[in-house]
Amino acid sequence: MLKGNVVIVEDQPNFRKGLIKMFEEGQLGWNVVGEASNGQDALALVDEVKPDLVLTDIRMPVMDGIEFVGHLRKHYPDLLVIILTGYKNFEYAQAAVRLGALDLLIKPCTEQDVKQVMNKASERYYEKYAHQQQLLSQRKLQQDQELRAALLDLPSSYEAMKNMNEVLSTKELWLLQLNSEDLAHKNYGKADLSLLQFAFSNIAEELLKGAGIEARLLLVEHDRFVALAEKPGLDESFVQAVQDASLEYLNIRVNIQAMGAAPSYKQLAQFYEQFKSGEPSAASAQPVDIESGSGSGMTLSLNQAKVNELEMQLMSAILVGQEAALQQLLNQLLTDLTQQTPEDMKIQALTLSIALLGTIQKQFDPDEKESLGRIPTDIPQAHWTAKDVIHWADTQVKSFLLLFNSWQASKSDNVIERATKYIEEHYSEECRLTDVAAHLHLNSSYFSVLFKKATGESFTRFVTRLRMDKAALLLRNTDMKIFEIACAIGFDEPNYFTNVFKQQFQMSPKEYRNQR
């Protein structure tokens, strides 16, 4: 699950420890990576751990919160900040907000107060994260184009040459060649070949991630990919895994060859041509459309970027709890598919499926180690009609929603378990629905509906029945007075307790005791 990192800066040890405990219970969606008691220590800590969020008090010794936030804005202008303050320090807090603090948390504060403010921080963090991923994706697209241009001996700028020489200096190159006989046998059209390229690139990249290999995969020509891997490159087990997976999923054999240490940017085309000429393919018997190869590579990169974008949209809707937004997004994606040409529809359907499976792997089953967990067991085929593709995509979405609902149910089960445990421990106190909801960091109305759905009875009825069961136990096994038992189970008025007990057991507490 995607979680941001937070540093807590608070000079009151007990309050600070209380906040940390709330975060460590895992319900706020953040990891505490450090704590400090003043702004000066916190600055050094922020430099060290690079958090996504700082939760800081205003009034502290050595360096107060205002000065601390001022320093943060100079060195970390985009860092999220939430201010802790008492009512009497509200003017200080307003000054901090002018310095760009996201929100205020007024002390003393309940767990529900903290939850609400942290939800706001989470939404901003996901937005920021999505934007960063988009910038990284755009940068990768640009680099892929520059590398592809160099490999195919196309014009490129001096700036690209300079930047790419730094990228290439630590890399080893590998050539991945799809088998020409298998491609010729399947008689792929241009659109079908694009689908195959997209599927193969996802298989290879998922196996790279699973093996922990730092590498990028580049489609250079219609049947050739080049992998740029950090030295020492790809090992034998990875090569075998790619060959096996390509045969299993796509029924395509693939030859993988080590090209050696990457040369300089200017020498890439000559270097590539040497290995390409040593690997005959269906393309070698006919002229190769260089521009077409470059265009296919760009399309593939854009499709990969679309997968990442969809994953971020799905993750954001799930993590912020926007179930309606998630359903609306999925419905819109299915509707958009129907507007595509039959050829593009297959690629977009596969893009959606890979994004759904990636979200499942990251969010619903983060401990799953299966490298190809993001690859669907079947992919759209060349002979499929538009109706077939829509049906397949709809099935993928329905499977995703079933897993989502199961995941939600497992979370609900955990919530109900924690709620009943809290009630068991606090039934002798006031134990209101709002108290339990606050303990669970849930909206009280939502918790009320959730509780009744899971237990089959209202919260009030559940607590009353538990108290009466405890009273019956005390009546059977102790000589405590009736008013003492009433007090022990959370009733201030003995007469009211007697009436409630009689409603449940059809007799008074005294009559019940006399039966033992």
Automatic annotation (TrEMBL):
Residues 5-122 form the Response regulatory domain. It comes from the Bacteria. The modification 4-aspartylphosphate is found at D57. InterPro entries: CheY-like_superfamily, Homeodomain-like_sf, HTH_AraC, HTH_AraC-typ_CS, Sig_transdc_resp-reg_receiver, Tscrpt_reg_AraC-type_HTH. Gene3D superfamilies: 3.40.50.2300, Homeodomain-like. The keyword DNA-binding applies. PROSITE patterns: HTH_ARAC_FAMILY_1, HTH_ARAC_FAMILY_2, RESPONSE_REGULATORY. Keywords: DNA-binding, Phosphoprotein, Transcription, Transcription regulation. SUPFAM superfamilies: CheY-like, Homeodomain-like. Residues 417-515 form the HTH araC/xylS-type domain. It holds the Pfam family HTH_18. PANTHER family: ARAC-FAMILY TRANSCRIPTIONAL REGULATOR, HTH-TYPE TRANSCRIPTIONAL REGULATOR EXSA. This is Two-component system response regulator YesN. It comes from Paenibacillus aceris.
